[in-house]
Every structure is written in structure tokens, then in C-alpha cells.
Amino acid sequence: MGTCITAVIAAAGGASAGKFVAASHVVLNIAGALLFMPLIGQLHAASAWLSADNGAQIAHAQTLFNVISSLLALPFCYLPIWHKKPPVSTPMAKSPVA
Hints:
By secondary structure, the protein is mainly α. The chain has helices at 2-11, 16-36, 40-50, 54-73. The longest helix has 21 residues, at 16-36.
């Protein structure tokens, strides 16, 4: 959640695409945190199984959280609601060749 404020501040004065990315980052982290709340014991067990060092366990837990959250969110990136249709352009009239 700590990187969310950085993304929001960076996008504050930017284009709408940057604001969309920052909002997506916030939503991804909040949804991931809500998803992992009931699974905190399993996340701890998995990170403890990977390493006995406390610092490494924190790093493993963060990596597992980010990878699993991103993999779960990936299919939603391809929903048709995110794809804007390109503007319809009319063909320009050809000028006569002199």
C-alpha cells in the first residue's frame, strides 16, 4: 500500500492515462489486501517454508502477494469495457493531379 501514494502523487498533474494507471494500482493493492486477509496464515506458512530468516520471509511474502494478486487481476485487463473504439475517420477527397 505504500507505493500507492507515490503513484497517485506522480499522476496528479499528468494525463488521464497516468491517472488511470495510478487508480488501477490503488485498486489492485486494496483488492489484493482484502483477498489475502483471510489467507494470512497460509501466506505466513508459505514464506516460512521458503526461508527461516525473518527478513527473507517478509520479502517472500511481499513477492508472493504481488505475483498472485497480479496474476488474478490479469484476466480483467482484457475485458471489452477497457478498450475504446478508435474514432471513425472519413476518407479525404483526393485532389486532382495537375
